[in-house]
Amino acid sequence: MSNCDYEVKIIQKEDREEVRQFMREYFMKDEPICRSINLISKEKPVNLPLEEYLLQDYDNGISTMAVKNGKMIGLCINPILERDGEQEKVESDNKDFITIYNFLMHMNDHSDAFKHFPGVNKAITVSILTVDSKYRGMGIAKDLMDRAQIAGKERGCGFMVVECSSHFTALAVKRMGFDCIYTLPYKDYKVDGKIVYNTEPPHTQATVYVKKL
Q1: SS3 content of the chain, % helix, strand, coil (to 5)
Q2: What are the residues facing 130 on neighbouring strands?
Q3: CA distance 13 to 4
Q4: One digit per residue, pLDDT tens: the chain, 213 residues?
Q5: 177-210 burial: b if 16+ Cβ within 10 Å, else e
Q6: Residue 184, SS3?
Q7: DSSP class per residue in 61-96
Q8: If we measure between CA atoms, which residue out of 23, 6, 58, 26 comes closest to residue 132?
Q9: Is the pTM value of this prediction over 0.85?
């Protein structure tokens, strides 16, 4: 535990709305690709399809939250992936959600993390890792990630994979001993010949990192 006094709890089903609100406040507004397409604004204060997609695994018994004085200050949602698992087919008339979903699928398909771990059939990943802005830099995200790796190994996962849209997230996981297996400069990701994400520096590329458990 860092010098910030908090406890880590496994997220329960009844925590859903608290998780949703925290995600809105500290994830949707801060992620570079979300900011670049103006995902959240006064005119569009929420994006329910994206929220529902990201919340799919919030109560899987692995995902955690950091709590201080009864208030959530950190969140880490950790889906389990299987080598032969089918990609979920998603349909929506929400353009922003589909834009992000297609990008995530592009990253997943082109990085192909399982090919780096022959014989491994299960992995743990991170769909959301975010901390209250007042408590960043105190080791909370690392604590949640360390716990996720332990939980993943206990569940039979051979490695952890993290898709990073943020430069700072990429730096953090690199410090945790992860190796980069895929890099996609945002200027090279185009749909119909147009750059999709005009992100602000230093967020110039998306990356995928892995670590053997």
Answers
A1: 35, 25, 40
A2: 75
A3: 26
A4: 445 799 999 999 999 999 999 999 999 989 999 999 999 999 999 999 999 999 999 999 999 999 999 999 999 999 999 998 877 778 899 999 999 999 999 999 999 999 999 999 999 999 999 999 999 999 999 999 999 999 999 999 999 999 999 999 999 999 999 999 999 999 999 999 999 999 999 999 999 999 999
A5: ebeeebebebeebeeeeeebbebeeebebbbbbb
A6: strand
A7: SS-EEEEETTEEEEEEE--EEETTPPPPP---S-HH
A8: 26
A9: yes
**Block residue for tokens 């996981």:** 173
| Residue appearing with tokens 């690709």 | 33
Asked whether 112 and 106 are in contact (CB, 8 A), the reply is: no
Q: Is residue 115 a contact partner of residue 45, using CB atoms and an 8 Å limit?
A: no
Q: Which helix (H) or strand (E) holds 128?
A: strand 128-131
3-class SS of residue 22: helix
Report the residue count for the chain: 213
